[in-house]
Amino acid sequence: MTGSNKVASKPSAFMAAPGLPEKQSLVRLTAQDGFLVNGLLVTREYQKIEEVLGIPILLQIHGLLGHFLARGTPRLLPHALLEQGFSSLSINTRLASAGQITGKGILDDTGKDIDVALEFLAKAGFRNIFILGYSLGAAMLVHWAAHRQPENIRGLILEGAAFSGPDSKKSRFDRYGSRPTYQEIFEKAQALLGDDPYHSPHDEVFVVYRATGPSLEPLHSEIYTYKTWWFMVGPEAHGAMIYKHIGRIKLPILLIRGEHDPLTEPWEPVALANLAREAGNTAVRVRQIPGAQHDCMENSEVMLREIIALFSQYSAA
User: How do strand 205-208 and strand 222-225 relate by DSSP bridges?
Assistant: First the structure.
């Protein structure tokens, strides 16, 4: 279904009164390749961990900036969920905190960060795990889910998901007359990184002017290394092309998009949902969040209603 903001009136078994006492725990996890993943676990206060293990918990995958820098969903959603009685774990992957500038933020490797976060939740005993990917995080999440086919996850939420991140980025570069152009960056990256970009010992930082707007001001500029650009938004960045992977996911999927999102078009979540359904996934729905832009927390009431409906439908007893 598309274009509707109504959800079933089925009451949630997990709803709780607002004002729950909050427990926050900083989490430090080590991914398989040694990368340190920082996270924030938010639950209600408890005497024993068993008291919250059956409550749905949302693993949050951030967009470009990471959870400790971003506005909107990454920062606000955990506490809004807690007011409704739900827990969350927000992690900073290797693409957070300037990973695209340091060269550490290879999108295809972020699956290792998701892996270790889920291992932490599983070992703790959480039984109803959902995952939300916001913006670029939606691409990380879909790429991960398509290649892992996890069995202990109840459902996925894709917020502000682009049909193809590289195509969207190229379109914006072309629209604003980026300096250098998309093609010029590709040619330089190809020459610098060689035949094996992932293992190439060569990399450099560069600035794209007029990347997100028509001026040369810093606000409209972006910074990458050639290697992070290659795997995030280049024409060979297959990991960021959600349409290539979503058909392999069999988990329930909720796609949400802000009504006034300037970074995605209304057709994109619909087209992604159709690809998933054509591949046999019948548990897919699309919701537009009225009054919101790229960040659906601009209409937190409707966004929360959609997420809670997913929790209610697919959580195990």
Answer: antiparallel
Q: What is the pLDDT of residues 62-81, one digit of tens each?
A: 987 777 666 778 888 999 99
Q: Are residues 145 and 281 in the same domain?
A: yes
**Sequential DSSP letters for 61-88:** E--SS-TTT--SHHHHHHHHHHHTT-EE
Cis peptide, bond prior to residue 21, ω within 30 of zero: no
Residues 6+ apart with CB under 8 A from 75: 67
- Whether 1 shows a pLDDT value over 80: the answer reads no
pTM of the model: 0.91
Domain-located, residue 46:
yes
For residue 219, the enclosing domain spans 167-232
Please determine, for residue 300, whether its predicted confidence score (pLDDT) is greater than 70: yes
- In a shared domain, residues 121 and 262: yes
Mean pLDDT of 95-108: 88
Query: What one-character DSSP code corresponds to residue 133?
Result: E
Residue 6 lies in a domain: no
pLDDT score recorded for residue 11:
35
CA 126 to chain centre: 21
Separation between Cα atoms, residue 294 and residue 242, nearest integer Å: 17
Residue where one domain finishes, among candidates 189, 207, 232? 232
Query: Does 224 lie in the same domain as 119?
Result: no
Q: Are residues 60 and 197 in the same domain?
A: no
Dihedral angle at the C-alpha atoms of 40, 44, 50, 56, nearest 10 degrees? -70
Structural domain ending residue among the three candidates 180, 211, 232: 232
Q: Please give the tally of structural domains in the chain.
A: 2
Measured CA to CA in angstroms, residue 224 lies from 80, 151, 275 at distances of 33, 35, 31
Strands (E), the chain: 22-30, 36-44, 57-61, 87-92, 129-134, 153-159, 205-208, 222-225, 253-258, 284-289
pLDDT in tens, 24-53: 899 999 999 999 999 999 998 888 888 899
